[in-house]
Specification:
The complex is a heterodimer of chains A (about 290) and B (about 100). Chain A folds into 2 domains: about 220 residues, P-loop containing nucleotide triphosphate hydrolases (Rossmann fold); about 60 residues, Alpha-Beta Plaits (2-Layer Sandwich). Helix content of chain A is about 35%, strand content about 30%. In chain A, strands 3-6-7-2-8-1-9-10-11 form a 9-stranded mixed beta sheet, sandwiched between helices. A two-stranded antiparallel sheet of chain A has the order 4-5. In chain A, helix 1 crosses helix 10 and helix 4 runs parallel beside helix 5. The two termini of chain A are about 20 Å apart. Chain B has a 5-stranded mixed beta sheet with strand order 3-2-1-4-5. The mean pLDDT of chain B is about 95. Classes of the chains: A alpha/beta (about 290), B alpha/beta (about 100). At the A-B interface, strand 4 of A face helix 1 of B. Bound molecules: iron/sulfur cluster (2 copies). The site of one iron/sulfur cluster has 14 residues of chain A, from helix 3. The site of one iron/sulfur cluster (SF4) has 14 residues of chain A, from helix 3.
Chain lengths: ~290, ~100
């Protein structure tokens, strides 16, 4: 079973939920792996001990233009949807802007004179952390100046392989990196806050998940802050509320220290335990009985 | 010299757009003819790379200078490499009229 933990924007508690959910699963002797798919700002490793092992490099193909062969026809530029080819007919100028290139291959197909070839460039890394000699955390991380983390995310997820439970900590937002993460998931948990901003971002995320036909539920973090609008909205929309994590300074300070709430504040363990049970029931409705 | 200025509306009384890559329009002021033309910025709706695309657009329109509030690092180096001058507008809420008056 693959579940993705996501949120419309950063800082709502996605990492808090992912890492603590991972820990209660581990305590429950579940065969579980956590994948940090927030490759532009991975931080799950802060909460889990262990040195990274087996660092791998993720690469992409980058077009290289041979200016001696190029006829300055501009077709490659016209075909590039990412503004990654800077092209001027007068004065003659053509350059690949590498930090915008998404490795789509369109320019290669566009060039009729064979002026474009490709080179392999590194765009990120995958690292693995072990707990009790078993794979526990896979972290994808982009290098500075990389246009898109999508390839790194896909490789990180495939590196995780098959386990009883794979938890994906999704990147914030609803663009390609988010889509690439929730795409393989059986179930998506959205983490939000009971504030107007939280609700606005949540509504956009849910709209996207509905279009993708992904089953999903909501965890309300910092419950007690803000107002009731979020709860009314969830009821109106018929969105399942999976759990409330109360607004508590103790949680915030444990989190700020890079520690797991379920370890330091055992009183909160049942919150995550119940969340895990509910997610399992939702993702596999047939096994409830 | 032809100068490109990002603006919010296609009119001389319009304000300078604080953004370069995603500005709504460009005013092109030709110092020789003292004529100003307004053209919609084709890069405004780009998902990514609006800055370089807008730089490419203004240069393809013959601009030899850009007068704007600020430019990103990528745009700055592209324009420099094309010998396009950057004229920094230090004052907020300037109109196109006022900017043209500076030349
Ligand atoms: S590979 Fe795709 S994104 Fe990269 S420069 Fe070519 S057309 Fe643009
Ligand atoms: S398509 Fe080929 S020939 Fe045409 S501008 Fe691009 S690289 Fe040059």
């Amino acid at each position: 079973m693959i579940i993705a933990i996501a949120s419309g924007k950063g800082g709502t508690g996605k990492t808090l939920v992912s890492t603590n959910l991972f820990q209660v699963s581990l305590d429950d002797r579940v065969d579980v792996v956590l994948v940090d798919c927030d490759a532009e700002e991975p931080n799950d490793a802060v909460f889990l001990p262990g040195e990274p092992k087996g660092m791998q490099t993720v690469t992409q193909q980058m077009p290289v233009i041979d200016k001696a062969v190029c006829t300055y026809c501009g077709r490659c530029h016209d075909w590039c949807s990412y503004n990654a080819i800077f092209f001027l007919r007068e004065p003659r100028r053509i350059d690949v802007l590498e930090d915008l290139c998404h490795d789509c291959g369109a320019c290669l197909a566009a060039c009729k004179v064979g002026a474009i070839t490709e080179k392999t460039v590194p765009i990120g890394t995958l690292s693995m952390r072990y707990i009790n000699k078993r794979p526990a955390l896979i972290e994808g991380r982009t290098l500075v100046g990389t246009a898109s983390p999508v390839k790194i995310i896909k490789q990180a997820i495939s590196e995780a392989g098959k386990h009883d439970l794979v938890i994906l900590d999704a990147p914030p937002g609803i663009s390609c990196p988010f889509i690439a993460t929730v795409e393989p998931a059986d179930y998506v948990v959205l983490v939000t806050e009971p504030t107007p901003f939280g609700l606005n971002d949540l509504a956009l995320s849910i709209e996207t998940l509905e279009q993708m036909g992904k089953p999903h539920g909501v965890v309300v973090n910092r419950a007690g802050l803000g107002d009731e609008a979020l709860y009314r909205w969830l009821v109106d929309k018929g969105v399942l509320q999976l759990a409330d994590i109360p607004f508590d300074r103790a949680i915030a300070s444990v989190y700020a220290e890079g520690k797991l709430v379920v370890k330091v504040l055992p009183a909160y363990k049942p919150v995550f335990q119940t969340l895990l049970d509910r997610i399992r029931a939702q993702a596999h409705p047939s096994t409830i009985a | 010299m032809k100068i490109a200025i990002p603006c919010v509306q296609p009119s001389a009384s319009a304000l300078v757009d604080d953004r370069f890559g995603r500005c709504a329009y460009f005013a092109f002021y030709d110092e020789e003819t003292q004529q100003t033309t307004f053209v919609e910025n084709p890069a405004a709706q780009s998902n990514e790379g609006a800055g370089p695309a807008a730089a490419q657009f203004v240069v393809s329109q013959g601009a030899e200078a850009v007068a704007a509030r600020q430019l990103g690092p990528k745009v700055t180096s592209l324009l420099q490499s094309l010998s396009v001058r950057f004229i920094e507008l230090n004052e907020a809420d300037l109109t196109i009229d006022r900017v043209i008056g500076l030349f």
